[in-house]
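Troubleshooting: if your tokenizer reports a length mismatch, compare your output against this known-good record of 160 residues.
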Amino acid sequence: MYVIAEEHDQEPQPQPPAPGYYVRRRSRGFAAHINASGPHLRSVRELIAKVLAELGVDADAADSAQLVVSELVGNAVRAVGDHVPVVVEVYATSFGVAVNVHDPDPLALPRRRGIALDDAVAESGRGLALLDVVAPGWHVIRSAIGKQVRCRVPEDRPCG
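Known-good structure output:
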């Protein structure tokens, strides 16, 4: 369960607060500082759904943002190891949802493996191709703490 407070009130935290998990509400979203683990990732995914719903983002875009975060945090764990410190930023924007994931290894850059999304026998290696579909134009920059993967998840908005 989460308590989502106004920006100038208490920050949203899982109840009860957990070591290695800190969330700060930002304008139109949040930044979560976590040590990557299954429980922390689940909490961030729940927070994405709750915050984006509160901001009026459609459910498909919120689901895609959750998928993007899962893939990028999973990549950070595979590159650096369990409990790697990462920062997950999620914001509602005019185009949909901005998702940024920071990790501390500037050298472990995401690489496509050339495995087709519909490959029936592949057990891994399709995540970045999936990012190409749900967050076209994603890119990587070096950051003060290592690297940052920046994604834009478009939101289908009704015409009118």
